[in-house]
Amino acid sequence: MGSIVDRIMGVPIRHVHSRRFPVSRARFLSALDPFYSGTSLDPFPTDFLPTWRTAGHLRPGSRCGTGPSVFTGRMTTLGPNVRSSYYITSEGDGVHVMHVLEGPISLLMWLVWKIMLGPGHDWTMESVLDRLEIFLETGQMPTVTPSPPPFLFRIPKPVRKLLFVFMPPARPEPETPGT
Question: Which CATH number describes the domain made up of 4-171?
Answer without folding.
Answer: 3.30.530
